[in-house]
């Protein structure tokens, strides 16, 4: 039995590695995601209480793994409640239904652009966090204690979920990326929007002060680059990049305000050996020519749009997924759901450079008919086979990713201490212990950096 699972895991690994190597895989890989909230509801557990206690959550995730034919580990991202409560979060709030949502608050005033441009991370630490998390808006000693408790709470949940994930990946033979090769980031413009200025604030800034918006995007770019590059970059890993505001802008504003730092970030990540998995929220059809210019084998996950047009314009250079409307799984018959999967396979699978996923993940249990969900994935797994797996013509590339001429300015802040800085401040450290101490202390610095940006 264990040998069969290992064999399945190796086959799944080969599917994705062939895809990312530019070869035609044995069949279309499947990469779907079931959010933690969905898994808890499916198991019949109380949503809010379970997210706090984690009692029964392993069994819930196990049950969810049994309803999917995904090749990739299907359990999705979750927000953790304890550190948010400790911080008095206004940025993420658990409602009465048990869902943690972003209510659309902003942490930066329009008059503070210059301060943000001078050093984004310093401004976030000094101004933005105390506004979004009021328990930090206090005296230095209390603030330190609050942050220490929040740090412990956050990484307790991280560690628990990581152990559960590892167990289920081995139990069911799911594929997952190389260790420490996943990142997550937003475009500089979206970062300004999401937690700093908010939708209304950024809309006013675009009209009244577009030059400051441009300067702010450029200023925060090094921070986003640092966020986006994981500890071990890999072409088999990815940095998830959801696109929020691009489709709400006029074409001229997109070209001037959004695209320059977005494209530069993706290119710099690719230059570091880290491809992006870009979630094109809403309809990006009017920007396909822009997306084409991104580095070869950038992965695009589309919510809405014309799959035929995307295959024609992007399908030879980039990797495509998405388009399957999740609403079908709730409103259509099982046969209609299967027919839709067949339609998309016929359009997107030929020539490779495609993996199957839905246009979004089912957050609530009532957003899908689970039997339809299972039927669609089973159909794709059984009918997404290629006639000539292993062919490399999909990788016979005419596309060269030219290195950027300007090296990006490195991230820096008085609140982020590299080992080199620490060593200068503590010259008494014994040389023989240096490698051990350096690795350990830098790991804690990176953990704090990670947590800060999970809050923003």
From TrEMBL:
Known InterPro entries for this protein? UROD/MetE-like_sf
Highest taxon listed in the record's lineage: Bacteria
User: What name appears for this protein in its UniProt entry?
Assistant: Uroporphyrinogen decarboxylase
